[in-house]
Amino acid sequence: MSVIITKNQSMAKKNNNNNMDKKEYWKKSTEGIPVKKIQSQYSEQKELLFPRSCEICDVGGSTGVDSLYFMQKGHSVKLLDISDVGLQRATEKAREQGVEEKLETYQVDLSEASIPLDNNSVDVVYSRLATHYFTKEKTQAIVQELHRILKQGGRAYLAVKSPEDEVELAFLKETAAEIEDSVYDDKGQIKSRFRKEQWEEILTNAGVAHYEIKSYIEDLSGRGDKTKSGHMKLTLLEIVSEK
């Protein structure tokens, strides 16, 4: 019996394979995260600005080390990540620490730009090192989704890799192909290093009217984490927006 595969079926199969590749990539990446890794300096500093006992969406939060810190501070967290391994580890840790009732997990591929949360449903959107893996078009769609789920008066805190890290950017340019301005294909993994003016355009086109973009240096010392180069400091851009 012969089977005719249409163009649409072929594209669907290709997309499914791409999704499987991404999930496998992030599964392996997540498995390499140290078990003893603790919350980031960024999470500690931002939590001080959150409303008390608020509802947080941690976007791309991996094993949930920052989410666990937020829950310990009395907040409730909706943790989104593409890796089921990360979400499972976060759930186990929450159970061990007695805060499981404060955690909801969702396996989400952000490249699909669809977040399974209601409009105006969270007080804070938090994302550290998770939204610099997309083209400009997809990043805009993601930002639009994050803005959608924020309550009126809510704030989003995004921290992304910065092109101001000249050493890291030079290495990326040597090892990856630039497929559009500030977007690189690194062996099939998309990485963006948008400049401030590019982020301004993304935010404006996503319907975000109130925002601030600034440089941020994060110290990784003593946290069970480091950059691939072994450095203990991260050069980031921080995007804070309000609905």
Brief descriptors of the model:
single chain, 243 residues, alpha/beta, Rossmann fold, 7 helices, 36% helix, disordered N terminus
Mind sketching the topology for me?
Elements: H1 7-31, H2 41-47, E1 55-59, H3 65-72, E2 76-81, H4 84-96, E3 103-107, E4 122-128, H5 136-149, E5 150-161, H6 166-175, E6 177-180, E7 183-186, E8 189-192, H7 196-205, E9 210-219, E10 233-242
Parallel strand pairs: 1-2, 1-4, 2-3, 4-5
Antiparallel strand pairs: 5-10, 6-7, 7-8, 9-10
Distance between the termini: 57 Å
Mean pLDDT, to the nearest integer, reads 89
Total of DSSP H or I helical runs spanning 4+ residues: 7
Low-confidence stretches: 1-17
The SSE order reads HHEHEHEEHEHEEEHEE
Strand order, largest beta sheet: 3-2-1-4-5-10-9
> Any guess at the CATH architecture?
3-Layer(aba) Sandwich
Extended strand count = 10
Beta strand %: 25-35%
Radius of gyration: 18 Å
**Estimated structural class:** alpha/beta
Number of domains: 1
Concise account of the structure shown:
The chain has 243 residues and is α/β, with parallel strands linked by helices.
